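USER: For my understanding, would you kindly supply a protein sequence with its structure tokens?

ASSISTANT:
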Amino acid sequence: MAISVDLIRKLREKTNAPMMDCKKALIESNGDLKTATEILKKRGQIVALKKAGRSAKEGVVGSYIHSNSKIGVLLEVNCETDFVARNEEFRKFVKDVCMQIAASSPAYVSREEVPKSIAEREKEILKEQVKGKPEKVMEKIVEGKLEKFYSEVCLMDQPFIKDDKIAIKDYLATLIGKIGEKIIVRRFVRFRVGEEME
């Protein structure tokens, strides 16, 4: 059975397990998401979810100034221990995410931060754009366009600038899997010369 990239991505978002493990679990479960999730649970591969309850009070504030000195970023990323905060891979992640923010200008860290009023307004605009189509078709189009909206304004949903096949949340999940600690992208601020702060 051929497993679609979309299905693998869905399972990965749900479990934060590595891509290849998600693919294997989906093949084993004949493409059934629920069964694949159970398979991953049994194998103990849902690493990031297990870390979610732990506290992340260490970390770093990373910075990036673009070569033309017109864009700057400050970013706080938290982890559980000072040891991890000094880890080379952790530091590389922070630097990469700073560059991501400078290049892609997200407005929020994650979709949970998007105010309900903004999400609802966006949904209404999208519904207006596809007015006249059958209800089910309209829902699918709006859902797809809403995902695109989140991938533009939410850092965690953005395609990674160094590898657009993965989102920042996938990059983070892989890092959590390698390091074995809870890691949180807490907050950021992006400055651009001449732009007003929001």
